[in-house]
Amino acid sequence: MTAETSTPSSGRTVFLGCGSMNEAVLAGLLAGGTDVRTVTATVRRSERAEELRGRYPGLTVLAESEDAEANTKAVQGARLVVLGVKPAGIAQLCREVSGALAPDTVVVSVAAAITVATMEAALPAGQPLVRSMPNTPLKVGRGAVGISAGTHAGTEQLKLAEELFSGAGTVVVVPEDQLDAVSAVSGSGPAYAFYLAEAMANAGVELGLEPGLALALARQTVAGAGAMLAEEGADPAALRKAVTSPNGTTERAIAVFDEAGLPAVIAAGARAAADRAAQLSKELA
Questions:
Q1: Percent of residues, the chain, with pLDDT higher than 70
Q2: How far apart are CA 150 and CA 176, in angstroms?
Q3: How far is Cα 261 from Cα 256, in angstroms, rounded to an integer?
């Protein structure tokens, strides 16, 4: 079978590691209608396993503290294996499970900075691999995910990876050399929005609002604006102009932002995030 036509026979999806990002993917997958009985997760501690079983009834969760071979047992015969440990542990995890993977199992990494080349060097020759850059709004069905095919992943493998995420967000296919940019815009992007909400709430307090009220207003405003942006065909520039009346209060605020160079500051922050991702890739290679 070739990478273009091979499709794993098993319907199981396995999450190796279930921290915040992998749990976000898991939650989105289940919210999209996947049968929880076809999903397995592995974690380090039995306490975390019990927590996940309680949160997702019917989910099979194996704890390494109870079985040192939890990861290798979990991946046997799986259709998809999602790598969700910290970036520094991805290569070791690939080596750990390499002997238990079926040749047509599609491996999907959600770890930042770990390149296709680094993972393929630790996996069996010819193993289909897809590198992804998701973000945490997958938990609420509003995720944004960039995916890139590895050397041996073809159309069918990319389709499986898209299906993994598409029930809970927007998926785009990009060349691997653009994933750092995706990370800078959407991977880190939720933190930028939260940072903005923090700043808005603090500004409200400075203007005399009670802290709880200022936070509630800032939170709902950012969430509401995000919902408007999520509508089909929404254009952020057009939405901004629609609430910026000539000589009005909003126009005055935007003028101050422009004078302070806020767009350039945001661009510089995104560049710093992308540069850091590239640096981490070299360090972890």
A1: 96
A2: 9
A3: 9
User: Rounded distance, CA 229 to CA 64, Å?
Assistant: 42
Report pLDDT digits (tens) over 201-226: 999 999 999 999 999 999 999 999 99
The confidence score (pLDDT) of residue 247 equals 96
Give the Å distances, CA to CA, from 274 to 15, 36, 43, 147, 279: 26, 35, 29, 16, 9
Residues within the annotated binding site for NADP(+)?
16-21
User: What's the number of CA atoms in the CB half-sphere (13 Å) around residue 196?
Assistant: 15
For the segment 267-282, the average pLDDT, to the nearest whole number, is: 95
**Numbered residues of the known binding site:** 16-21, 71
Reported as a single tens digit per residue, the pLDDT across 69-117 is 999 999 999 999 999 999 999 999 999 999 999 999 999 999 989 999 9
DSSP 8-state code for residue 44: S
Q: Would you say 132 and 109 are in contact if contact means Cβ atoms under 8 Å apart?
A: yes
Report the alpha-carbon distance of residue 267 to residue 72 in Å, rounded. 43
- Give the DSSP letter of residue 124: P
Hey, what domains does the chain have and what are their CATH numbers?
Answer: 13-176 (3.40.50.720), 189-275 (1.10.3730.10)
H runs (alpha helix) in 76-154: 90-97, 116-122
Q: Kindly state the DSSP code that residue 81 receives in the 8-state scheme.
A: E
Q: Point out the annotated binding site for NADPH.
A: 71
What does the block give as tokens for 147?
């995916």
